[in-house]
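Appendix B, example 12.
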Amino acid sequence: MKHEYLTNEEAVERVLAVAVDLKSESTPWTSQDLLEEMVELVKASGGEVVAEFICRVSKTSPKNLIGDSKLDDIVALCDLHQVDTVVFSHELKGNQQRNLEDKIQVKTIDRTQLILDIFARHASSKEGKMQVELAQLEYLLPRLVGKGIELSRLGGGIGTLGPGETKLELDRRRIAQRISRLKSGLKQVVRNRQLTRKKREEKGVPTVSLVGYTNAGKSTLLNMLTEAGQTTRDGMFTTLDSLSRQLVLPNHQKIVLSDTVGFMHDLPHDLIESFKATLEEVQHADLLLHVLDISHANFRLLYESVQVVLDELKVLEKPVIIVLNKVDRIEDAAWVESFKDNFDHAVIISALTGQGIDDLQHKIVELLSDLFVEINLDVPIQRMDLVNLAHEEGEVYSIKYYNDRVNIRASVPSRLAGKFEKYKIK
């Protein structure tokens, strides 16, 4: 009998978290690490982990992933703790998920479905909702195939496809059509971003992208630097919608600072594909700020996981500042200072309290310095547009007005240097 423990929409789902420890898979993440992260994911989706189970198997079962004996243990735990939902750390195939649900008699999902659920809850912009829906549908579509084989047998026979398969084909066609429309819509988003980016490049404004593991504090840092007012919560994937804000650095140079969706280890490829419109900001950035939660017990694993995603995006060669965040939670400040020495460019900060923010801004200035050139010009008095451009997009060191000309010494973006070339003093 299927359990009926949820009595209203506000009831918190009681979840059994199952970490699958597969001997044939080599990973630095232990089963306990996986369980701890799943607890946070479940919390972000509005549920509560009431029981945990580590399932060690030498190889996966095509039938139900974990084998019958382990499955009996899970059934017993579900009865004991009145579980509403079972979440597996390992991705489930369509037939495995159905077989598990038939046996356990409660909703059974995998980690990918859990992440997709969190994304669906937190997406607020039109673009964000489109990206989430695309990821959900691309996850669902291949899982309809196995179901169709089963359903076709119910009404199958000579001269008929069976009602199950007919419905399946209709579902598949509708989903494929919707995926096509979503991809077309997201291509338009990409085109719009390209136009915006082109205008920024024409003005010579550098772009800096925040990247990092989910819940590392990227949005809090964006708020601290730009007063963006981005919603922040202590939880995973609270920010899905990209946000860009202008920031004026201590040397008066203007940059565009962009927030991005948080990364995660073993992030499903479909999710990365679906969010490519957003992640293009990372690929075109002049500088990356890799925000790392230095207070996290597994911060080294978090760092490596982000590096894997950056490698997939082909941006590892970009200049990067490692932003060691949440230092306000660390008691041993000397240890953090010593760890900082592992990187060419690293800054210790607390995005929450503002500690180290000035150091971070000066480090950004330092790494962007190659993108600026110093100019010494005699500009005709009728070309005040160039004087204004130097003020707006660069740092003016000195300016002197004469009857027919203006002498100006300044630092301007390299991409704008050509506009001033004609009036340079040799």
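The chain has four domains: 14-119, 123-186, 205-369, 372-423. The longest helix spans residues 163-203.
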